Each structure stands twice: as C-alpha cells, then as structure tokens.
Task: inverse folding
C-alpha cells in the first residue's frame, strides 16, 4: 500500500506529466491532447511506484517493460521519461520537429526508455504479448505493462493478442485499456460500442478489474497484483483529465494548443500542484 | 559451384528440409524460436513442436498476432522464425511485418510456403503471386525464392542470422535437383548455373529448373543461353545482371509470381538504369490464382520451360 507521502509524490508526478504534455504540444501548436492527459495518471503510478527501470541504463535487461500501444499519446510517455531522467526535459520541445527523437507516435529506436515502437493501432498489443512470452520463457521476474486505447479495441488484432496472452498463461502481463469513452470521430458508444470491457477481458481469460483512472492508490494495488492469469485493468478515465476546458471540449482527441491556451492550462495545473504541495 | 542438374527430382522434399533446419537452429541456439499459425503439420514440425512447446509456439490461426508476437520476442532478444502459407505470411500480416517488424527493427524470418502455383489444390485464395512484391517494399528486407533443397539448407540459417525482415518463399513438396550437397551460397549473389553468350535467363524458385530445361533446348538450336538462379530477389545482384546483360545482350526473367513487383521488375529496374537490353518475361500477368494440379496451373499461367524457350528466342530476335 502506498503511504501518504508516496501518494502525494504520484499526484504531483501526474500533474508534472500533464504540464510536460502542454509544454510539448504548445511548441508544435497542436497534438493528441485528450488521450495524453487521460494516460498521464496511470503513467504516474507506473513510473512513480510500480515499474523497475534505470534511466541511466534504459536497456537494462531486468527492467519492467511498458508498451504504449496507443502510440499517438507519445507526449504523455515522453514527459514521464523526461521527468524521470531518461533524457533532458528541454528535449520535450523538439516533439515532431525534423530529426527529433520524439516523434508523434512512439519509437523505441529513437527515444531512450521507449520499449516498443507503435502507431498502427492494435500492433502494440501483440508485441507486448510477445515480450511477455519471451520474458516468461527465460524465467525472468519482470513484467510487461501494456496500455491500449478504447478506440483501439476496435482492431481485431487486439483480441487475437488477448486470446493468445490468456491461452499461454502470460501472468507477467498487465494490460490497461484507457477507457476514456472517445475516439477520433466521436464517442465510443456512437462509433463502435465496445460494450462491457471488463466482462470481455474476463471472458477472454484475464483477471479483469475496472479502476478510476485517477484513483492512484487503487491503481497501485491493481498494478502490483499478481495472478495466475494475465491482468486486465480497465482504466475508467476522462479524456483531457486535469484541465477543465479540455475535459469539456467534445472533440478533444487532437486539439490546437495556442500559446494563450497553453499558458492558461499550465496555470491551472500549476495551481493544482501548489495545492498538493501546500497540503501538509 | 557444383551444378548437378540433370532434370531429375530430388529425393528430399522442401518441407522436410524446413523442418530439420528449424529443429537444428533451435537446438543450437537458445535464442531461436519458431512460431506457426496452425500449419505445423504442413511443414512436418508438429510432432517435434509438441515435444518442444517452449520453442515451437503454435499461435493458432492468427497471423497478424503471430507477426506481432515475433516482433515482441525479437525486442527481448530472440530470433523468431514464423511460418504460414505465403498468402497469409505476407498479405494477412503485412502491416504487422512492415511496422512491428521492419520499421521497429524487430528482426524476424518469415517462411511463406506454397509459393505461387505450388498452392495447387488449395486454389486461388491460397495462391500468392504478390508476396514478393509486398515484401520487397519493406526497406532493408531480404526476399528469397528457394529453388533447391541444398540452397535452402545453406541459406535458411543465414537468413535467421541476418538483420531486418527476411522473407523466404518456397514450395513444400518436390523439386528438381540443382546443386551438389554442401554447396555454399551468398545471400544477395546470383548463381550462374550455366554460362552462355546469346541470352540470359534470370529465374528464381521453381522456374530455375525450367530455365535449365529451356537452355538445353535453345542450345540444340545453336542459341547459347546463360541461366542464373537469382534466389535473392532483394537485394538483387545488380552487378551480375549488368555483367550478363553486357555479355549476352538479351534477358528473360522467369518467376512463379506476378509480373508486378517481383523478379522481373527488380531486374528491369536494374537494367533500365544501367544497360537496357531486350527483355522478356515469364510471370503471371494481372490474374488471380485458381485451383488445380500444379502441372495444369503451370500451363495455365505460362510458367513452363516452353514459355521460357519462346521468350528467349523472341528476346534474341529483338537484339
């Protein structure tokens, strides 16, 4: 269980990741804001308290692996990795610029700390499953954390990977679905209703639970949970979480980020950060 | 290079060589792992695979996931070999092979069996005339079309230890003997099976033996035909093609594949940029596959020694 101090650090990390996302997107003027913000909270728990890794040795073989299958939310992962010391924070401002190490969709051959290249939705799921299989065959005590989007769940490959993971007993795999209820063209319900994701993953042979995306203490518990089955965590999130104006924007999958709005949003996040710091 | 071609069939069949090579590679290197999509029975790996379940992973009928799992295994240090019929090993999982494999630099060796008309009784749905074309578009990929068991025994392990996406297309059943046992090959270098001065037949896969047969007929009519086994379709051996275009002044390409994007186009691009000469092709033109015995299909799509012979005469007459 996380103590109060740890919990506070994770809350702060989550906000700092979100500020990092704004810093990145402001520089290019637009980007995948909504999904990056909803992913930031679980990322803070994973990189703040759960995963084993070494920023000085990103390829350390005994590290836990993280696969961001919703690869377009790279900005959230980049901010996390920069804050954790994988590369200088200033580099976040190079997002999507020519010859950057931070492309819109994550690339393991470019960014220290990125464990898998993704972008074509659904593919990260199979690669994470392959990594989990490999680590298990080698008898390693490592884990693979996979985050897919909820729109991504439309891809058939996702379900091939889910069936495989359960059938092969990959209990070193923790599969998150960022259930923020929206995809590019609109709501999940309107476009292709995923139905009950927890029930679906359970039926596929996972130990499946649903957790509020910003309930850090509960996230920690489910991430640390070990089972004889692969674990599925349906992250009940809000797209754009943490910035009221973004949360309330219906089409917030990809948004324009002007200097003015970036300044406003950063102020909101910094105020939240101060509130936590001031809260003895 | 010791060529033993005499038109006779080999006593070995491809699927046994695929199977024994996989078993050998897996036994020798703990990093080599083999994945299949419910077609182990078709390349005789099933019995062994069931006794080595941690090294022979049956992924079920899910080629896209299999390619992705292979990419993930590569990312944690394995050298995966995946197999399916060529149609599924290319078309069905192309995006996965392209991105999770090639783009992400997760090296994998792909066996696409039942190349072209070798799919025979499985028919048009299972008959890949486009697999090499697809795989050739992946930057730094290696694309090989197997003509002979001795070639496969030597080249398959070399593919496994080469970087990038490696695609090996092959028949599963019988073949005509070409090479003496123990022959050593170099990926990316064509093999001159027969020298000649009037025309060069550049072939791959099952068309190589037919090229040899055509060359024999041509020689009876005083036409001296060189025959090259261009088993590596990518990277193509441009130097050898240019050398033989200069030497013979005419080229015939022969492939058990669509004319779009396969050997013919690879050779044509090489020549158009360096030394254009009259060129003819024996390949599948704008058609889908269909069901039937392989001999019928070879006639139907014009993939015969007779067609190579005709093309060679035409190419020579255009000089």
Result:
């Amino acid at each position: 269980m996380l103590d109060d101090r740890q919990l506070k650090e994770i809350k702060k990390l989550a906000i700092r990741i979100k500020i990092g996302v704004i810093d990145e997107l402001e520089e290019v003027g637009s980007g995948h804001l909504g999904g990056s913000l909803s992913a930031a909270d679980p990322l803070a728990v994973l990189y703040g308290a759960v995963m084993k890794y070494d920023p000085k040795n990103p390829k350390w073989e005994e590290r836990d692996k993280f696969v961001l299958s919703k690869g377009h939310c790279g900005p959230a992962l980049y901010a996390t990795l920069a804050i954790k010391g994988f590369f200088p924070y200033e580099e976040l401002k190079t997002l999507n610029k020519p010859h950057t190490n931070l492309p819109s969709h994550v690339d393991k051959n470019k960014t220290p700390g990125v464990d898998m290249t993704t972008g074509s939705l659904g593919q990260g799921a199979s690669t994470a499953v392959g990594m989990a299989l490999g680590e298990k065959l080698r008898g390693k005590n490592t884990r693979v954390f996979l985050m897919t989007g909820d729109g991504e769940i439309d891809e058939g490959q996702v379900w091939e990977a889910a069936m495989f993971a359960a059938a092969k007993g990959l209990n070193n795999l923790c599969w998150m679905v960022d259930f923020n209820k929206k995809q590019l063209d609109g709501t999940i319900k309107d476009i292709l209703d995923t139905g009950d994701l927890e029930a679906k993953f359970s039926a596929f042979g996972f130990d499946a639970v649903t957790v509020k995306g910003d309930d850090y203490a509960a996230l920690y518990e489910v991430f640390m949970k070990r089972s004889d089955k692969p674990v599925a965590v349906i992250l009940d999130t809000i797209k754009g979480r943490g910035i009221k104006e973004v949360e309330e924007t219906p089409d917030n999958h990809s948004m324009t980020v002007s200097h003015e709005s970036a300044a406003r949003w950063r102020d909101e996040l910094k105020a939240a950060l101060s509130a936590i710091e001031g809260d003895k | 290079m010791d060529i033993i071609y005499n038109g006779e069939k080999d006593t070995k069949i491809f699927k046994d060589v695929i199977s024994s090579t996989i078993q050998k590679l897996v036994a020798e290197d703990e990093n080599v792992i083999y994945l299949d999509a419910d077609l182990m029975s078709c390349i005789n790996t099933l019995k062994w695979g069931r006794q080595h379940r941690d090294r022979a992973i049956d992924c079920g009928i899910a080629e896209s996931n299999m390619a992705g799992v292979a990419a993930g295994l590569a990312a944690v240090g394995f050298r995966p070999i995946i197999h399916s019929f060529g149609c599924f090993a290319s078309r069905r999982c192309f995006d996965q092979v392209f991105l999770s494999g090639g783009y992400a630099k997760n090296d994998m060796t792909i066996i696409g069996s039942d190349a072209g008309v070798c799919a025979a009784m499985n028919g048009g749905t299972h008959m890949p005339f486009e697999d090499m074309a697809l795989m050739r578009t992946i930057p730094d990929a290696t694309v090989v079309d197997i003509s002979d068991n001795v070639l496969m025994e030597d080249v398959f392990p070399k593919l496994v230890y080469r970087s990038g996406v490696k695609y090996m297309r092959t028949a599963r059943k019988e073949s005509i003997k070409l090479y003496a046992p123990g022959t050593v090959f170099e990926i990316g270098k064509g093999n001159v099976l027969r020298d000649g001065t009037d025309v060069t037949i550049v072939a791959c896969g099952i068309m190589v033996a037919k090229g040899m047969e055509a060359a024999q007929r041509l020689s009876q009519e005083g036409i001296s035909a060189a025959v090259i086994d261009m088993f590596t379709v990518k990277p193509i051996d441009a130097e050898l093609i240019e050398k033989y275009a200069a030497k013979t002044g005419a080229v015939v390409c022969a492939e058990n594949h669509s004319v779009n994007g396969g050997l013919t186009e690879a050779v044509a691009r090489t020549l158009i940029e360096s030394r254009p000469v009259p060129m003819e092709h024996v390949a599948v033109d704008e058609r889908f596959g269909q069901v039937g015995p392989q001999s019928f299909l070879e006639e139907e799509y014009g993939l015969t020694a007779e067609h190579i012979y005709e093309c060679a005469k035409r190419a020579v007459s255009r000089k």
Summary: DSSP finds twelve helices and twelve strands in chain B.
